[in-house]
Automatic annotation (TrEMBL):
<keyword id="KW-0560">Oxidoreductase</keyword>
<dbReference type="GO" id="GO:0004601">
    <property type="term" value="F:peroxidase activity"/>
</dbReference>
<dbReference type="GO" id="GO:0046872">
    <property type="term" value="F:metal ion binding"/>
</dbReference>
<dbReference type="InterPro" id="IPR036851">
    <property type="entry name" value="Chloroperoxidase-like_sf"/>
</dbReference>
<dbReference type="InterPro" id="IPR000028">
    <property type="entry name" value="Chloroperoxidase"/>
</dbReference>
<feature type="domain" description="Heme haloperoxidase family profile">
    <location>
        <begin position="1"/>
        <end position="203"/>
    </location>
</feature>
<keyword id="KW-0479">Metal-binding</keyword>
<protein>
    <recommendedName>
        <fullName>Heme haloperoxidase family profile domain-containing protein</fullName>
    </recommendedName>
</protein>
<dbReference type="Pfam" id="PF01328">
    <property type="entry name" value="Peroxidase_2"/>
</dbReference>
<keyword id="KW-0732">Signal</keyword>
<keyword id="KW-0349">Heme</keyword>
<keyword id="KW-0408">Iron</keyword>
<feature type="signal peptide">
    <location>
        <begin position="1"/>
        <end position="18"/>
    </location>
</feature>
<keyword id="KW-0575">Peroxidase</keyword>
<comment type="similarity">
    <text>Belongs to the chloroperoxidase family.</text>
</comment>
Amino acid sequence: MKAFGMGFDLATFLAVYGAIFDGDLTSYSIGGPALSLLGLGSLLGEPQGLSGSHNKYEGDLSPIHGDLYQYGNNLPRVSQFAALYKLGQENGDSVDLDVLTEFRLQRFEQSVAENPYFFFAPFSGTIVNPAAYTFIYRFMANKSAENPEGVLDGETLKSFYAVTGNYPDFTITPGHERFPDNWYKRNLVDYYTIPYFQEDLLAMNLQHLQFLSVGGNTGTTNSFVGVEPADLTNGVFNATNLLEGNNAFCFGTELILQMAPDLLSGLFHDITQALGMLTSAVNDTTLGLNCPQLTSIDKTKFNKFPGYTKLKPNGVYKA
Ligand SMILES: *[C@@H]1O[C@H](CO)[C@@H](O)[C@H](O)[C@H]1NC(C)=O
Ligand SMILES: *[C@@H]1O[C@H](CO)[C@@H](O)[C@H](O)[C@H]1NC(C)=O
Ligand SMILES: *[C@@H]1O[C@H](CO)[C@@H](O)[C@H](O)[C@H]1NC(C)=O
């Protein structure tokens, strides 16, 4: 992640989170079982990596990857890449945060319209998903003295996503993702940190309130129901205060702690260690943010969403 210029705080949090949910507590892979297995003896099965972490880390509404239950896999989709590429072209061959915000809204509407099991999950929807969009610009844009924030043109985007061909007849060849030649990363004094990400998150949320609506389709397309944040959190968060300060970030990160025991019990015989690591990571990440303290949530509010219940066939989550 250093190659991109990711802040240590953000990299650490994402690494710890990924290692807990998709790995073996020390590392995780992009797809498939992690190579280094700790002798913990408490893992229920082989860690599945990011591709096996649906709605825990990887979720619906990815920019380029399809929704798992819509396609039966979460492979990159040419149609989604082409839609983003086109928006960039219409913006003077520049994919910036406005373009990505617009694209995320399109993807949201597309998931509601096409994926009966669309589930906009508490943490993966409100934190990981927006990060997946802001990272595209913040990390893939080519930085220069003239454009310190960076410029992300169509060719650079194609290189990072292993795309060849011309719009709209693209081909994606997974495994061939590469840094473009002559491409420059973030300045060393300007790494992308959590406070920086929070600003981008707030800007996105203020433009489209959908981005805070944890919820989903109820088994048919176009049946999206959002869960009122106040109902979910017993009033600690509400639709109004979620748009203030760091609250959206607090909401997402604190929600994962509330969801963690269920999620982890599908992964570990004994969740103590994993839960402890996660709690410390969340504590470190939210230190100094004055987050409202979330101590419980009403998970039954999610029972009407098959995208949620499909994850736990026997009362525990399965990837
Ligand atoms: C990145 O920007 C520099 C400076 O403008 C330029 O020379 C270089 O060709 C650009 N690289 C890419 C991949 O666009
Ligand atoms: C939202 O919560 C804040 C405090 O956290 C409270 O002051 C406010 O009245 C609440 N707003 C609504 C609409 O419930
Ligand atoms: C996290 O913070 C909470 C609240 O301040 C505290 O009770 C808890 O002990 C901390 N946990 C860890 C693992 O640091």
